[in-house]
């Protein structure tokens, strides 16, 4: 009868150590790949969020006959006179902080005309963009001679809640208020008031 030989304890231990090194290496590869996928998805989500917000802003600003960057109920924002295109004028866009660590903001559109514009009790307030990293979104400057009014937009977004700048995305544009009055006096005209 043939002798049956098994594995020695040393052979089993060596095999287990080699197997654990290989499995830990594979686990590290899978975890880093999964983490990269999550980060890529968050970045794409933030970019899409900014593009959709810019599209919505572009529609209202193109319609506007006047635009003024201002503080609306303690929130930085912009008021647009859109009476040429809509019965709900003015339209307000407000940047409201929703988290402090890291600092994040949300962009809301409101059509109210009272003291509650953009506040949590404003029934007309609609979320337009999320994951903003800066409250400095809107600029309106003096209008150059023979030009229409333009509104500067600077959307900085980062959908990754753990990062502050690593996955940030910035989308900027200068949008013309097509229904605004052309500046014909002097070298520049002042920004119109919208209330």
What this model shows, in words?
This protein is of the alpha+beta class. It has one domain (9-189). It has one helix and ten strands, in the order H-E-E-E-E-E-E-E-E-E-E. It has one helix spanning 9-63, and strands spanning 66-72, 75-81, 91-100, 103-110, 126-132, 138-140, 143-144, 150-157, 169-176, 188-189. A five-stranded antiparallel sheet has the order 1-2-3-4-5, with helices on one face. Strand 1 (66-72) and strand 2 (75-81) form a beta hairpin. The mean pLDDT is 88.
How many independent structural domains?
1
Radius of gyration: 27 Å
Structural class: alpha+beta
For the largest beta-sheet, the strand count, sense and barrel status come to: 5 strands, antiparallel
The whole-number mean of residue pLDDT values reads 88
Write down how many β-strands occur, each being a DSSP E stretch of 2 or more residues: 10
- Please, what is the oligomeric state? single chain
Strand order of the largest sheet: 1-2-3-4-5
Note the total helix count. Answer: 1
**Proportion in helices:** 25-40%
Uncertain stretches:
none
End-to-end separation: 103 Å
SSE string, helices as H and strands as E: HEEEEEEEEEE
Q: Rough shape?
A: elongated
Bin the strand percentage. Answer: 25-35%
Please tag this protein with its features.
195 residues; alpha+beta; 5-stranded antiparallel beta sheet; 3-stranded antiparallel beta sheet; 32% strand
